Batch of 4 targets.
Target 1
Amino acid sequence: MHAERFTASGVELMMGEGRFIAPKTIEVALNNGIRRITAVRVFLVVGSRATLPNISGLAAAEPIGHRFKIVLG
C-alpha cells in the first residue's frame, strides 16, 4: 500500500545504506548497485531505535520498528 502511494506521488523510494561522500552528496548502496545523489538541501530524519522486550512470540511476529529516513530537497 505505501509503495503504491510513493509511486503515485512521484517520489522515488530507495532502500539501502547511505553515507555522505561530499557536501550535499550521498552515496547509497542498493541491492542492484550504488547510486550517488546530490541535493541543495539534505534532511536527515533519524528518530530513535525501537527495542523488543522479552515477550514470548513478539520477535517472531516481526513488529515494525522505527526507520531511518533521508529527505532530499
Note: The beta strands are 17-22, 25-30, 33-38, 42-45, 69-72.
Target 2
Amino acid sequence: MVQLDRNEMVVEWGSEEIIIPYRSPLDGQVHRYFPDFYAKVIAHDGSIKEWIIEVKPKAQVKQPKTNPKRKTKAWYNAVREWGKNQAKWESATAYCKKRNMEFQIMTEDHLGL
C-alpha cells in the first residue's frame, strides 16, 4: 500500500504474510487465516509497535439481524460469514495479545473511501 510505503513512521510492512490458525464454527475444523497486513511502526513515544490489520467493508463488521422478516439466501450467507469472521478475529486478537501486538479491523471509514 502506498500509504504504508510513504509513511516514515512505518519501519516495515507486509501483506498476507502472517498465518493464524482458527477453528471455524461452520465445520469445527482448524483453518488458516491470512490477515491483510502486518505493520511495524514507530509510536509517538519512540517505541516500536506491531500491528495486524484486517480491511473489510463496513457492512461485514456488523452482525446480521438476528430475526429478519425473511431469511433469504443472502442473510444465511451473511450469518455464516459473520461467524467465520468472528472466529478469525478472536484468534487474531489472542495471537496479538500473546506477542504484544495490536489487532485492528479497518473499514472504508478508516481509509477515507
Note: The longest strand covers residues 48-55.
Target 3
Amino acid sequence: MANARVYLETSFFRYLVAQPSAEATKADRQEITRLWWGRRRHEFSLRVSQIVYDEFCTAREPQIGADEAQQRVLLLDEAELLPLNRAILGLARLLLEPEGPLPAKAEADALHWAVAAAYACEYVLTWNYRHLNNAFIKRRAERIIRSHGYESPTICTPEELY
C-alpha cells in the first residue's frame, strides 16, 4: 500500500478544515479526517484535480476570506494536480444520466471519478455518500469504467483507509 495513489475528493477537505461540529456524526467524520491527514497522508501519493480546487477554494463558498482561501490552497498543494483532458471529460459524460448512474447535476462527482480512474488512482477518499460512496451507483459506474479500459478506484472514507 506504500505510495498508493489516493485521490482526495472535495468533501475530504471540507471535513478537514471545518469548524468542530456539535452534530455527533459530523464531528466523528471531522476527527477521522484529521487523524488520517495527520497520521497517514505521508504513506500515500496524494492527488487532486482542478475540480477540487474549484469546489474548495473559489466562488462556491463566497464566505471564505482571502486568508482561509490561501490556507486551503496550501493544503491542496500537498497533492499532485491531475489535469483534465478529453478522455476524462468523455468518461465523465458516460457516468452521467441518461445512460450512467449519476444524475446530470452530479457532473463534478463524475469528473472526480473519471480523473481518478484515468490516472490509475487506487483510492478515492470521500465523505460523499450520495453520489460517490453509494453501493448502487458504484456498481454501475465500475462497469462503465471497466468497459472503457480503465480500472475503477476503490471509493472509500478516510476511516476505511486508516
Note: The chain has seven helices and five strands.
Target 4
Amino acid sequence: MNESVRIAEQIKKMLPGVKHGTLRFWGVWFGRPHDDIHKLMDCDAKDDVLTMRFNQDEVLTVWSPKKLRLDASKFQVRDAKRVRWEWFSYGSLKIEENRFFYDFIKTRMRVVGNTNVNRLQPEMRPSRWLPAVEIL
C-alpha cells in the first residue's frame, strides 16, 4: 500500500470530522486568510495521487503526498511533488469556462506556482519549507 492510499484511508475514517477552514498551499492562501470555509466531503487515491472533493465542487489533487497530520483541529500534508486546486468561479455557472486552478510543482530547489485566474492576480510566492497543503 502506497502513502497516498494510506492517507486516503486515514481521511475517510475521520470524515465528516475533518477540520474545515481556509486552504493554504506551500504558504499561498486561497483567498484571504480565514475568509472562506471549505469542507472536505470525500477522497480517494490511485497511483500515488490523492484526490479530495470539497463541498462546493472544488477538487484538490496531491501527487506523492507525504506526512499527513490529521485530527479535529489540524489538517496538513507536509510534502508532495505537486498540488492542484480547482474550483468554479463562485456564484457563476459550473461550466468549463468558469473553472479555475492553482497549480504548484515542487522542484529540487523551489516550488513553482501557476494559475489561470484572470481577474485580481493572486500573489504566488510558495515556500518549499512550508506544508504542501493546510486547512487553517
Note: The longest helix spans residues 3-14.
